[in-house]
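Q: Protein A?
A:
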Amino acid sequence: MKRRRGAATRSGSDSRAYQQVVQEAARLLAQGEAAGFDDARRKAVSRLGITLRQTPDNAAIEQAMLQYRTLFQADGQTKQLRHLRQTALQAMRLLAPFEPRLVGPVLAGTAPPHSPVHLHLFADTAEAVALFLLERNIPCEHDERRVRYTLETWENLPLYRFVAGDVTVELTVFPAQSLRRRPLSPVDNRPMQRADAAAVAQLLGGTT
């Protein structure tokens, strides 16, 4: 009996430690003190001095971040999210020839402070996107983004990054025929949600 009580105590302790890491990682993300889920987990474990058998997954941290922002950042979150979505819609209208889709935290409503807008574009070549931006005098940086279609399948795709006002916009360029092929979300490993310009305008309550 003593052993069982001890095991239960350890289990309860593990559960409390797990929740502490979840809440701290969520706070770090909500406050803009972590660059992403992995960074938030590392910082939370380090700051709390906790060792876990299994660290929290992205979905648990995201859910806790939503709760944190609802409790402590509701007014600011609403204004910030609307600003990010307005910027996304403006960029999507500009980039209409590439059938842009909004993805990630700005679409999900979980965007932390200073979050970039993530758009998926579809083009015959990545150079077509670069030329399009160049012709409109939009300075951009070139990079790559790794996307995952299955737990074992990855692809590196071209990414262009530019600044619109005070918001960073990131464009991942997919092959033109990939519009219906959705990569997996880094949050829950399910096919990523995408929204076209009409859907984003609807989120904003109409056109802007």
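Q: Protein B?
A:
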Amino acid sequence: MARPAPTDLLAVAARWADPTGWPVALRFAAPERWYARLHADDGHEVWALSWLSGQGTDLHDHGGSAGAFLVVAGALTEETVHAGRLRPHRLDTGTGRRFGVHHVHRVTNTADQPALSVHVYRPALSRMTRYHLRDGRLRVAEVAEAGVAW
């Protein structure tokens, strides 16, 4: 008997793209990004993040979780490491990205306007590792645990 196909996490993000249906009110905050968990079940969890111009993340992974994110409003730049260098990729409103369990990236709002995104992880995040890129190699900077660091 064939296994059922796993849920497309980018499709899940798209189902949560309308802030009027969220269980929390959307906010934009400075100096830190605002984020809120919108949903969690045995299969995945869903987060909303708002980004003012210039706000972003460090290089990080998702602690063994696969995921996807969808830009709901504005534009975000995702940088990934290729051949020891950061490679930027702009994601505009309505575009998204799926990623596997070993994905390392940095996401930043490099545009002039605020941005909004929805992120889905399977399994739920339990930790995230932050990295520095030095001499073309990723070096662990910190391991953050869920419930402690966020």
